[in-house]
Design brief:
CATH architecture: 2-Layer Sandwich
Order of helices and strands: EHHEEEEH
Structural class: alpha+beta
CATH topology: YaeB-like fold
Strand content: 25-35%
Number of domains: 1
CATH superfamily: RelE-like
CATH class: Alpha Beta
Shape: globular
Oligomer: single chain
Number of helices: 3
Distance between the termini: 28 Å
Radius of gyration: 13 Å
Length: 123
């Protein structure tokens, strides 16, 4: 199976919600989230529980456990060979509907202009 391109969502102002959130986490949690993104890139559509869950409306959660904290990275598929990761958060009991709505809004923006809304690291 070919690699799945993992794209990180970027706002119009250049801010990257996923990176802002990751930078607020401890190092171990950051490493676990980044490792989960690699797994997502390696397996794409074939990845199943316990790694991912379909939340409906084409939004998925990438599930990461760090100590007693459940971390979630929300994403959507963009075609057959790419995903766009919109943001992350610490989950308590249920996924707050506002997080799903935020992911859907960001995916909609991404679809209108994928290049503008894809984080490009400086080389």
């Amino acid at each position: 199976m070919p690699q799945t391109e993992v794209r990180i969502y970027q706002e119009e102002d250049g801010s990257v919600p996923l990176w802002l959130w990751l930078n607020s986490l401890d190092r171990k949690s950051q490493e676990r989230c980044l490792a989960a993104l690699v797994i997502l890139g390696n397996h794409g559509h074939e990845l199943r529980r316990p790694y991912v869950e379909n939340l409906g409306d084409d939004i998925y959660e990438l599930r990461v456990k760090s100590g007693r904290v459940n971390l979630r990275l929300l994403y959507a598929f963009h075609g057959q060979e790419a995903v766009v990761v919109t943001h992350g958060f610490a989950k308590e009991r249920i996924i707050p509907p506002k997080e799903i709505a935020l992911a859907k809004a960001r995916v909609a923006k991404f679809i209108t202009d994928p290049e503008r809304h894809t984080f490009q690291p400086e080389e």
